[in-house]
Specification:
291 residues, five-stranded parallel beta sheet, two-stranded antiparallel ribbon, 33% helix
């Protein structure tokens, strides 16, 4: 495995490798060929509260509790196990089936460095308060801070101070698109743009609190939609207020929306971590004479 760029999020991230929508992670995978492995850990329907239940299986374990004499406290003294074979987990036989006890872990064994970790949540959290996916906004903040603490707290088994953390705000909601879809499918409207805006603001607030960059996807798409509205001459092009230019169903990104996000991620990496730009990041294996 090469060094890793990991994206942890909801269905927008789960779909980010879909060729139909030219997902932003597909773009990143192509961009970092032979430089970083781009891992998609998007979970459809998840909000940050549910994501807390699986995040420990998503992030690599960088340290283990010491079993040597003199360890103290619940966590004990931590010792790194990079390049150790202690955690090469064996298969377990159960009747006629072979069980992999760590199969749900993204990093079940020793792994290369987690260079960039993307946290991309908020769309489901921002659902109306009566909906099961809703997370109160202060709880949403706490959950985001918890994700960061797993990588930044020295007492965490996922401690990785060199990992670059990147937050992405949820995109806007195309209210007219969502209402039309709900009408056709006989469902209730649970996502609204005004609510998405507040959760996008919270993502930016948390990023500033922990001094890490963010991609303002919400703000960029709003900017593009308003620009397109002001220049549109044919009223038919603004039936959905222009959000259909970037959203597939009023919530998820279409091809153009994914391209916008990909470009923003590239810009952010170049601005804050130029050493991780594809032109600077080390490449695996010697190139052929024709490359």
């Amino acid at each position: 495995m090469y060094d890793v760029l990991l994206a942890f999020g909801d269905s927008i991230t789960q779909c980010a490798g879909d060729p139909e929508f030219e997902g932003y992670l597909a773009y990143l995978s192509r961009l970092y060929q032979r430089q970083m492995d781009v891992l998609n850990r998007g979970f459809s329907g998840y909000n940050t509260t549910r994501a807390r239940t699986v995040v420990s299986k998503v992030l690599p374990v960088t340290r283990r509790p010491s079993t040597t004499k003199g360890s103290s406290g619940l966590l004990g003294n931590w010792i790194g196990y990079a390049n150790s074979s202690l955690f090469d987990f064996p298969k377990v036989k159960s009747g006629s089936k072979t069980i992999w006890p760590e199969r749900d872990n993204t990093f079940p064994q020793n792994s290369r460095a987690l260079r960039i970790c993307i946290f991309f949540f908020g769309t489901n959290d921002a659902a109306i308060s009566s909906w099961h996916q809703h997370t109160p906004i202060e709880k949403f903040r706490d959950n985001l801070l918890y994700f960061v603490s797993l990588l930044r707290d020295p007492s965490s088994k996922h401690y990785s101070p060199s990992t670059k953390i990147l937050f992405i705000t949820p995109p806007p909601v195309g209210d007219r698109m969502v209402k039309e879809k709900a009408k056709i499918e006989g469902e209730n409207v649970v996502n609204k743009n005004e609510r998405a805006r507040k959760y996008a603001q919270m993502v930016k607030r948390v990023a500033n609190e922990v001094n890490t960059p963010y991609v303002d996807l919400y703000g960029k798409i709003e900017e593009l939609v308003k620009k397109n509205q002001s220049t549109a001459k044919d009223t038919q092009t603004v039936d959905f207020e222009g959000y259909d230019g970037y959203l597939a169903d009023g919530i998820h990104l279409n091809s153009a929306g994914n391209r916008v996000l990909f470009d923003l991620i590239q810009e952010t990496i170049g601005k804050y971590w130029p050493e991780l730009k594809p032109s600077k990041a080390p490449r695996s294996y010697m190139p052929t004479s024709k490359e």
